[in-house]
Amino acid sequence: MWDYNDKVKDHFRNPRNVGYIKDADGVGLVGSMACGDALKLMFKLDGEQRIEDVKFQTFGCASAIASSSALTELIKGKSLDEAARVSNKEIAEYLGGLPEQKMHCSVLGRDALLAAIDNYRKKSRGEQPEEVQVASDVVCACFGVTRQEIERTVRENKLSTVEEVTNYTKAGGGCGGCVPQIEELLTEINASPPPVREAQPKAAKKRLTTIQKIQLIQETIDREIRPQLQKDGGDIELVDLDGDMVVVSMRGTCSHCKVASFTLKFVVENKLREFVSDSLRVVEASSAEAGDEA
Fold it and tell me: Quick check: is 61 catalytic?
């Protein structure tokens, strides 16, 4: 477990501004469920074009939740130009500091804010908005980190080593295959980006028996979901399968986390639909039991 200070723990256990804005003026979604950190940020402007309300939904570690909470507090009441100047360092400083290996969580928050502002401005110009901040030139395939993200983070935080880049962006922290390219970016930041490979179409999922489905669900939980939850003291257990309804029980820190419902819907359910069946839906054991009693 990481050694978090009291303020980080407070924002993790009691995150501010968690939720959803139905008619948000700007929406930004960044990160990757596969790497364990994803953040959706929404804001609403008042008549003076200042941020009147801001909400977030996130999946990630304690630092990711705390950083998202801190960011929303920092930008309330600001104009978009003022909010855009909030740096990831300010987010970390507001929290009293983050472990060096967790600085990427503060960067994630700033990226989500910039994506939400870009989303609003595109809509204002009559362009087709995108909730997801899309960028080509992926450098780190393990964590979906792009050249643009690395370049901006290196410049803003004056990074000089691969280890620092990994701490701030996660790039290079997986298989390590992108380390040589990160080294080149550190010394020649304006080098020509590598070509982007087209995504391969997914193979059609075959029809599964109930036993096969249960086995595949358990394998997916063990391989794709549990390792990320366990990093910060959480866990998940497969309880039952009723048709297409997967019943799970959240354990450890996940059992009392305020964003557990987001984790169930946008992480657990999405992963099981990706690797097992598009028709699956996930519920927590207590909710399933309440439905049976009704």
Answer: no
